[in-house]
RNA sequence: GGCCCCGUCGUCUAGCGGCCUAGGACUCUGGCUUCUCAAGUCAGCUACGAGGGUUCGAAUCCCUUCGGGGCUACCA
């Protein structure tokens, strides 16, 4: 079966919504496999269902893949020798093959109406037999056809499944066999002439010389149908693509991940401040592992380590906590320049800064003290807000903690002594406050500094206090303390 | 219902007949560190779905069973 053709892997989503976690995990494995083998990664849009696929979703899918860094060798925007890569632009190709299948007897026109088919299914269900097309139109006479046409019926093109069975070797699950008794004749072309997935996917994989199909396991049972199309196209068995059906990514409730059971759109994660490399690293661990207790991998390492052999056959639950942990690790691993660049949009969107040069200067100094304190980029604005706000206010739930007489006394001592600090640096500030509050007043550090922290940053949770005061500056720091005395 | 896939800590996983009184990570609990929060660090909790085989020996092989999931469209 596997000839030594150059590896060509495709990711072929049907963008009926934003790409979600499951799609992306598939795309990631497709990409990693292509890169690992030195093969080509093909990106194809399956938009044969124009009722549900929109141009916006197609563009969103393209943008998402780009954002994640899953670059493709052939597909939308980059083109390639096997295009076009949008199925809606390949209609003539499918029509040609459908006509050939009809002429060769692999397929036939079926005039059954939806209502009739539904009635058949209903009867089958009642009789407790395998549901599926009953072959009603398989051998229609010329007269019968003429009668149907006279009625104004428009036929679909249906593939004839021969008796027997289909066996193929799934790279992840091993040998899988489907008895054709349970693979009914399936529709290739709608009554309106438009192709269905069953036709387009097989034709395109052959035309685009795809060698490996790694896709979700929901498509496992449709594989015999694809193989039947290959046969009708005259593809030799050793040139069929190899299949690998990836396990599902599931939500908390053990159902296939979908909009109903969690936030699954990648766009949502992007807005929440997740890094693409964190998403990819985490997703790579869902259904695959590099072994040797290894978990932290870069995109580059992923392409080196990824093999289909190490992909699981069992489904995985999506765990937001673990994603956050990995995201925190990846944020800490960012260079200062890169951390700044990635933080900027979150700060400006939150209107914490407008983006002026002065603000950026201050930001460059502030970012290092919070880099190890955030799990997502979205947490940054709240953490640095105190440095930039025009009208400073202490948070409501922290205010009571500085309103008692002891706190006011403490703050007043701090205020007095801080005025005499010669050099407004975190070392200088710390030395003065320790002497005044800890040594002379005998306070516990956590008590003493808490009041100052609330006064200066507005919250009992903040970046390191002395660094924060240094960045805020003497004037503002003192004013904020004084305001609470 | 039928067909197909799947089954190790709460979760993701390592494990491919002896190295397993089952390892790592996340979560959770407790300790250390500490100006808060993090980070770091130490410790703890907790798993081979069940029942039969095969074998000197099974998480690893076989069977049954139970459980979960997918498909069963003129969706993909």
How would you describe this structure in keywords?
single chain, 485 residues, mainly alpha, Rossmann fold, Glutamyl-tRNA Synthetase, domain 3, 4 domains, three-stranded antiparallel β-sheet, 11 strands, 46% helix, 9% strand, elongated, RNA-binding
The averaged pLDDT comes out at: 92
**Helical residue percent band:** 40-55%
- Count of individual beta strands: 11
CATH topology of the largest domain: Rossmann fold
Global outline: elongated
Give the full name of the CATH homologous superfamily of the largest domain.
HUPs
How many structural units, i.e. domains?
4
From the 3D coordinates, which CATH architecture of the largest domain would you assign? 3-Layer(aba) Sandwich
Give an overview in words.
The protein is mainly alpha-helical and 485 residues long. The chain has 4 domains: 1-76 and 247-333, HUPs (Rossmann fold, 3-Layer(aba) Sandwich), CATH 3.40.50.620; 94-189, Glutamyl-tRNA Synthetase, Domain 3 (Glutamyl-tRNA Synthetase, domain 3, Alpha-Beta Complex), CATH 3.90.800; 334-388; 399-483, Arc Repressor Mutant, subunit A (Orthogonal Bundle), CATH 1.10.10.350. The protein is built from 19 helices and 11 strands. The chain has helices spanning 21-37, 55-68, 91-104, 114-127, 142-150, 197-207, 223-233, 266-271, 276-284, 299-305, 320-332, 336-349, 357-370, 380-388, 405-419, 426-440, 445-457, 465-472, 474-483; strands at residues 8-11, 40-43, 107-110, 156-159, 165-170, 174-179, 186-189, 212-216, 242-246, 249-250, 316-317. The strands form 5 sheets. Strands 3-4-7 form a 3-stranded antiparallel beta sheet. Helix 9 (276-284) crosses helix 11, helix 15 crosses helix 17 and helix 16 (426-440) packs across helix 18. It is elongated. The protein starts with 7 loop residues before the first strand and ends with a helix. 34% of the residues are buried. The structure holds one RNA strand of 76 nucleotides.
């Amino acid at each position: 079966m596997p000839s030594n053709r150059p590896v060509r892997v495709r990711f072929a989503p049907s963008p009926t919504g934003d790409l979600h976690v499951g799609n992306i995990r598939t795309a990631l494995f497709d990409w990693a496999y292509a890169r690992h083998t030195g093969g080509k990664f093909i990106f194809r849009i399956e938009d044969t269902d124009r009722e549900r696929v929109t141009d916006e979703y197609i563009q969103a899918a393209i943008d998402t893949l780009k954002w994640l860094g899953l670059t493709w060798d052939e597909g939308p925007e980059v083109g390639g020798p096997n295009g076009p890569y949008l199925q809606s632009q390949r209609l003539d190709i499918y029509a040609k093959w459908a006509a050939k299948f009809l002429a060769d007897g692999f397929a036939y026109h079926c005039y059954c109406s939806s209502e009739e088919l539904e009635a058949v299914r209903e009867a089958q269900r009642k009789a407790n037999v395998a549901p599926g097309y009953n072959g009603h139109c398989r051998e229609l006479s010329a007269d019968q056809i003429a009668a149907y046409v006279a009625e104004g019926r428009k036929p679909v093109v249906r593939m004839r499944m021969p008796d027997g069975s289909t066996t193929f070797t799934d790279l992840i699950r091993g040998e899988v066999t489907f008895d054709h008794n349970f693979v009914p004749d399936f529709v290739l072309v709608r009554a309106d002439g438009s192709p269905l997935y069953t036709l387009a996917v097989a034709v395109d994989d052959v035309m685009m010389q795809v060698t490996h199909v790694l896709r979700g396991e929901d498509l496992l049972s449709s594989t015999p149908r694809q193989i039947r199309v290959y046969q009708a196209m005259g593809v030799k068995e050793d040139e069929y693509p190899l299949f690998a059906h990836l396990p599902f990514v599931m939500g908390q409730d053990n159902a296939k991940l979908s909009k109903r059971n969690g936030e699954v759109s990648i766009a949502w994660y992007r807005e929440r401040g997740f890094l693409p490399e964190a998403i990819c690293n985490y997703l790579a661990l869902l259904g695959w592992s590099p072994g040797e207790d290894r978990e932290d991998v870069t995109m580059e390492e992923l392409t080196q380590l990824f093999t289909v052999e190490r992909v699981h056959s069992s489904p995985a639950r999506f765990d937001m906590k673990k994603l956050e942990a990995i995201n925190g690790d990846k944020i800490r691993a960012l260079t200062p320049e890169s951390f700044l660049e990635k933080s900027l949009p979150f700060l400006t969107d939150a209107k914490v800064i407008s983006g002026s040069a002065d603000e950026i200067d201050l930001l460059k100094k502030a970012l290092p003290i919070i880099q190890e304190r955030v799990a997502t980029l979205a947490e940054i604005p709240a953490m640095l807000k105190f440095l930039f706000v025009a009208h400073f206010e202490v948070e409501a739930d922290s205010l009571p903690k500085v309103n008692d007489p002891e706190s006011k006394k403490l703050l007043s001592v701090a205020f007095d002594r801080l005025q005499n600090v010669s050099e407004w640096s975190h070392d200088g500030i710390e030395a003065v406050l320790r002497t005044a509050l800890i040594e002379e007043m005998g306070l516990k550090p956590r008590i003493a500094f808490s009041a100052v922290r609330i006064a200066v940053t507005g919250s009992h949770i903040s970046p390191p206090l002395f660094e924060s005061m240094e960045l805020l500056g003497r004037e503002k720091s003192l004013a904020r303390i004084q305001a609470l005395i």
